[in-house]
Structures are given as C-alpha cells and as structure tokens.
Amino acid sequence: MKLPDSSRLQFTPDLNICRILNGMWQVSGAHGSIDPKKALPAMFDYLDAGFTTWDLADHYGPAEDFIGEFRRQLKAQRGEAALNQIQTFTKWVPRPGRMTHAIVEENIQISLRRMDVASLDLLQFHWWEYRDSGYLDALKYMAELQAAGKIKHLALTNFDTEHLQIILDHGIPIVSNQVQYSLIDQRPQVAMANLCRQHGIQLFAYGSLCGGLLSEQYLGQPEPGRWDLDTASLRKYKNMIDAWGDWSLFQTLLSTLQTIAQKHGVSIANVAVRYVLEQPAVGGVIVGARLGVAEHLADNAQVFNFSLDNEDRTLLETVLNRSRDLYQLIGDCGDEYRR
C-alpha cells in the first residue's frame, strides 16, 4: 500500500506531513490498556503504510515515551536518516498560574527527553482559563525557546477565535490550531476557519469520527446507553450528538453517509473524514490509533482515493440543516472546556 501524493501537505517549509495524523490519545488509558510490545511494531506498520505524522501530548499517558522508544528502534533498525520520515506533534497542557521562563523550559525539557529529540517538531499549547493572562507569558517564553532551537514551530489546541487573534496581535508565530471538527461539530466554520485562512494557519481536526460512532457499526442500531460505550471517546462524542440532535437524526445522517460511501466504494468513516479534510483551512484530520489493538490502515488510505461532489454535499447539508446550532449552544472552538 502506497498513499498518493494527495495524502501529503507541505505544512511548514521543513515539515511535510500526512493529512491523516495518528492520534495517540488512545494510549492514555482512557480507551483500554495498550501493550507496548504490540504497540511499537504497530508504529512501524503505520510508518510503512505512509502514515508518518503523530499527534500526542504530555498528558496522554506513555505517548511521549512511545515516540522516544519508536525513534530509538527506528534509528537502530534503519539508520539515523530514517528519523526524517516521521513527524511528531506534542502538546503542553499546564495548569493556569504564574508562568516564568524557567517553568516553561523545565516542562519543554521533559517532552524533549521523553521523545528523545533535540527539538520539538510542533508544540501545541492549551490553556484552561482565559481570565488568567498567563497564557501570553507562556507563549512568549515558548517563542524564546523556539528561537533557541528547542521548538521548531508553535501551535495551539482548543483556542477560540478571539484569543487566537489576541495571540497573533502579540506577534506570536502560530502555525496551527487543533480543534474539534466533524459533521456533527462544525463550529470552526463560523469564525475560526476564516481567521486561519487570513493568517496562513492550519486547522488540525479531532473528533471527526466521533470516537467511532460515525461508522457502519452504529447504523441501524438502537441508541446506546452510557454503559454500552466502553471508551472515553464514545462517551464524549455521544454527548456531542445529543446536543446536536437526537439518535433518530443521527441515524438519518448515517444512512446518508452509507449512500455516499457505497457510491464511492468506501466506508462511512472515509466519507466523514473526507468531508472535514475538504473544509477551508483544514490541514489534517487526527484519527485515533489503538496501537496493537485495532488497525484501520487500509481503510484510512481510502480517504485519499475519492472526493465529495456537489450531489454528496447537498445530501449531507439536507440532514445537517435539521440539527441544532452547536455554536449557539456551546460557543466557539474549545469553549466546552471552559464553561
């Protein structure tokens, strides 16, 4: 299996990435146990299939450690040059409070050590409390560490449009913002995407499969109860579906997705991911990787073998127009974490 050129994005002058990023929240423990002895070989499978870009965080359990060990094994088996084939994007999610250069550098050093890198490809920063302006101090110090070579590129995760603008007004060089974005949650279309297009910022979308709910597995099925949903992702995105509409409307959406999927000879998940990939300012979609448990490499590759046409989009809009407005209910990107 070889992914087509359309699977790649020249994200920055020095980083050419896969537009489907391997999400490592799934190794955090909230989705069941992961066996490192199976996970590491699976990471080689992802690389060899063309899925070279990893999304992780300092608080995703052993995710940064997995990257460090993967890098060491990759170098030992294929030589140091092979390390240039992978891109690893981590996050820093500190508790709000006073930020100093020493505090920021100490935390960045932890990620550098765990991931076994001299410089972080991309550091995606999250801040819980906007009333605490320490996020601007943290970003200022991160920019200094970027200038010192500890970080290649600065990014955000779950920032809203207003505060992204504030950060840009302070001269902080942001290259991406990671946000929830799916057929169910289209809040980035309201304001975020336009600001990102104006400033050449890419959006990385997560939740695009609603934890697996946007799949054939749930088509024609009765509404699951909380205890039927055995991962953190399923529980989280079932709540989002409940806010968006109801199970009946969701079934209508799944039926529509199946019609489109059958037309293109792909899966429902492929259509859901493709829809988000085709939205303005979206650079990539993060698809969870349950390493050594469930691999969907061949299916994910199909995302790059078709495009949605006007008929497909009209069918989807007919259903989506019947849903509630999550921007009005929840607020802008990331506001669900700050209410």
What does this protein structure show overall?
- The chain is α/β, with parallel strands linked by helices and 339 residues long.
- It has a domain at 8-209 and 273-306: Alpha-Beta Barrel (TIM Barrel).
- It has helices spanning 36-49, 63-78, 101-115, 134-147, 161-169, 192-199, 232-244, 247-264, 268-277, 297-301, 310-320, 326-329; strands at 8-12, 15-18, 20-23, 53-55, 87-92, 122-125, 154-157, 174-180, 202-206, 282-288.
- The longest helix has 18 residues, at 247-264.
SSE order and pairing:
Elements: E1 8-12, E2 15-18, E3 20-23, H1 36-49, E4 53-55, H2 63-78, E5 87-92, H3 101-115, E6 122-125, H4 134-147, E7 154-157, H5 161-169, E8 174-180, H6 192-199, E9 202-206, H7 232-244, H8 247-264, H9 268-277, E10 282-288, H10 297-301, H11 310-320, H12 326-329
Parallel strand pairs: 3-4, 3-10, 4-5, 5-6, 6-7, 7-8, 8-9, 9-10
Antiparallel strand pairs: 1-2
DSSP strand tally:
10
Provide a count of the helices.
12
Q: What helical percentage do the residues reach?
A: 40-55%
CATH A-level architecture of the domain at 8-209 and 273-306: Alpha-Beta Barrel
Order of helices and strands: EEEHEHEHEHEHEHEHHHEHHH
Let me know the average pLDDT.
94
Largest sheet: 8 strands, parallel, barrel
CATH level-1 class of the domain at 8-209 and 273-306: Alpha Beta
Task: Please state the overall shape, judged from the principal axes of the Cα atoms.
Answer: globular
Roughly how many Å is the radius of gyration? 20 Å
Under CATH, the homologous superfamily of the domain at 8-209 and 273-306 reads NADP-dependent oxidoreductase domain
Strand order of the largest sheet: 3-4-5-6-7-8-9-10
The protein's oligomeric status is single chain
Q: What fold name stands as the CATH topology of the domain at 8-209 and 273-306?
A: TIM Barrel
> Based on helices, strands and strand pairing, what is the structural class?
alpha/beta
Please report which band the strand proportion falls in: under 5%, 5-15%, 15-25%, 25-35%, 35-45% or over 45%: 5-15%
Poorly predicted runs of 5 or more residues: none
Give the N-terminus to C-terminus distance in angstroms: 44 Å
